[in-house]
User: Fold this.
Amino acid sequence: MWPSHGSNPHYLYEAAGLSLPESFLDFSANINPLGPPAVLQERWGDLFYGIGTYPDPHTASLKEKIAKREGIQESQILIGNGGAEIISLIGRLIAGKKVMIIEPAFSEYEKACRINNCDVSYYQLSDGWDIHLDDVIEKLSGKDAVFLCNPNNPTGMYYKTRIMLPLLEACKRENCLLIVDEAFYDFVAEYESLIPYLKEFPQLILMRSMTKIFAIPGLRLGYLIADGGLIEKLTDCQPHWSVNSVAIKAGEWCIEDERHISRTIQFIHSEREALYQFYKENNFEVSNSAINFYLLRDKESHDQYPLFEFLLKQGIVPRHTFNFPGLEGRWLRFAIRTSVENVRLMEVMKAWRKLNP
Ligand SMILES: Cc1ncc(COP(=O)(O)O)c(C=O)c1O
Assistant:
């Protein structure tokens, strides 16, 4: 009944049996509130000339830029039509295998596994969402692959190297792929790259999306970093010309705009501080997010549905959590948006608190 992803709020209103208000603020999609880098608008006209020829099927120019930025070989990179395509390519790579998904997580991993007849099991992070290494490592036994969303969607929590390294070591012992979805890594102020460990741990696969940080969900662009042998296998599964020439060129411009990323990190940090202070003062519980979205629940209320409905009626669109195993609607997810929009959200939350002290 509920839409499986954020954005396109008319589907959410329809599912909730409400009519879409004339104006609304969509907090359900986790896109950079500062928008795309300015260069995209400034040079948009230049992209027109790219559409008259087939794109480079090897996406060499963008790979070169990413390789330089990350200090890796181009042969360790695959460019995809969004992170979503990359997840579906991985699904084909691990078809029929024993796969564990650390939940809650982005729902597309499970979908890709099911379509490819994987034997799927779950490790459920409980409230607080810390990773208890001994527990997870014990469950790894006999698995061929494990998915971890880090930073995590939907909680926004980020697991640093002191957690990731023992996990990697355990995956190496089990000969199990560790597939880490880093779609939101650019938003983390204290990000610790796993790229230096790629050589020692060829089981490591890093998935990234350019959608979120560069606010380009309509263009469809993401990439994967892994051992060269894995990249070859994944590339064989990818349709020719999968990434269009507009996205390739735009991606080249975006990836060079480090200033846009640092400005975003600073902005998100200060907005999150203000929001979290407000929530604390008004008795809302939030997840310990390191990025541009967070989970929230009203501590005063067992059932979050009345709050969800109240917000929708006020034109505030949260992301429901009915399809996140382990959350099942007990939390709501919000993106951090512009200051004006975050202030509006706090006003509406304040109104809710007044009615529900
Ligand atoms: C954790 C995670 N990974 C991957 C994706 C897919 O991103 P893209 O828009 O690049 O396909 C999303 C999109 O919401 C996501 O939340």
Observations:
- The chain has two domains: 9-30+259-355, 52-256.
- Residues 9-30+259-355 form a domain with the Aspartate Aminotransferase, domain 1 fold (CATH 3.90.1150.10).
- The chain has twelve helices and twelve strands.
- Residues 36 and 268 are 15 Å apart (CA to CA).
